[in-house]
Specification:
heterodimer; A: alpha/beta; six-stranded mixed beta sheet; four-stranded antiparallel beta sheet; globular; B: mainly alpha; 9 helices; 78% helix
Amino acid sequence: MTQTLLEIRDLHKRYGTVEVLKGVDCTMAQGEVISIIGSSGSGKTTMLRCINMLEEFQGGSIRIDGQEIGYETVGGVRKRKKENEIARQRAMTGMAFQQFNLFPHMTAAKNIMLGLMKVRGMGRDEARSVAEKWLDRVGLLSRIDHYPGQLSGGQQQRVAIARAIAMNPKLMLFDEVTSALDPELVNEVLQVIKGLAEDGMSMLLVTHEMRFAYEVSTRVIFMNQGRIGEEGNPKDMFVKPQTERLAEFLKSSSFN
Amino acid sequence: MGYTLNFAAVWRSFDLLLEGLALSLGLAFAAILAGCLIGLVTAFGLVSKNLFLSKSAGLYVTVIRNTPILVLVLFSYFALPQLGVRLGKIESFVLTLAIYSGAYLAEVFRGGLLSVPPGQREAGLAIGLTEMQIRTSIILPLMLRNVLPSLSSTMISLFKDTSLAAAIAVPELTFEARKINVETFRVIETWIVASCLYVATCSVLAALMRAVERRLTVPR
């Protein structure tokens, strides 16, 4: 019996009066690779961002390794946890962004070392050697002292993934990490993610790369209008979708 | 127009002008240093989601920026003592210029803060940094690089504003020049020399700031 890593219960999220998540439930076991697909505005990125509290949410709960994320209920009143506690919880997950978001004034090494030193409390030398290890892993050891502006988009994204993974998170969140890349650079990034999946890293991927989702996922979640429309193993999902919405979505996306 | 230029009288008092210039630089340095701190705190106030902070910061900037600096200088030197705040000439002027520069620098820094993409903060949050760590390690260094050109011109303006201290008899460059003018009657020569000293100093300041800019530029 594998251990439960992530447990989302009845997640509700509103922007003002617009409800973008209308009660999402999801349980994820250690080592699973789940792709979240769906048309834009379906709430997939928002759901991902709730898991590391980049977005507030108004109802429901998220647990990682049994720990309640972001909020606590004291005497029947739901309260946001203290900022330091939330920062500590955020470090349990790693995130890679669509726009990479590398720190432009720091070299590849420094980008990775910042969190290791400030959050994990490592010394400079230890942090540097961890940075070397992960840059080697994503094939960019030779670029260790390059600034983000000196790297291609694909290379920047690989550094950004290394920066997140180096923190040794329990769960990796990928938010459309190939959407901002030129087509010929997509594959190098997907290869890195695939390698991590093979190592048993638990991952949640919001993606538009249907072929990749099909190949790498243990499970696929189809989001539709703020709810989970359908979920299952990739073979069933892509080959014989149960709902009409998913069938339509797959037809309109590039998967074939 | 029988005026013949004769700089001899001005040269005899040149060391007075240099002493004045040294004081001008001292006034500017102290005031801008304090102004940068005030401006930084105010800028974070201006962009804060906390309504009280943003409104009070906004009020400070509006009031100070819409009052002529000479009025502020005269107010703090002549009016404040009536209210029980007694400061020396130099202290009074430095305080005034600090508060004045704080308001201008706050606007400069605010622009710089807004120019840092929100993704930078999110990336910092995602690796578990606290808001304070994000500010010091990510936002401030990026903001500083963005504002250097306008920071440079604001600082030069503020340096030139030290000449207003002459109005309350602080013996800085303009005050000394006026004294020499009155004593020697070499009107044109005195003010030409004083102007040259201002221009030379400002050019050096601008060159220093450009050097800092080059030093901080990230390779791409």
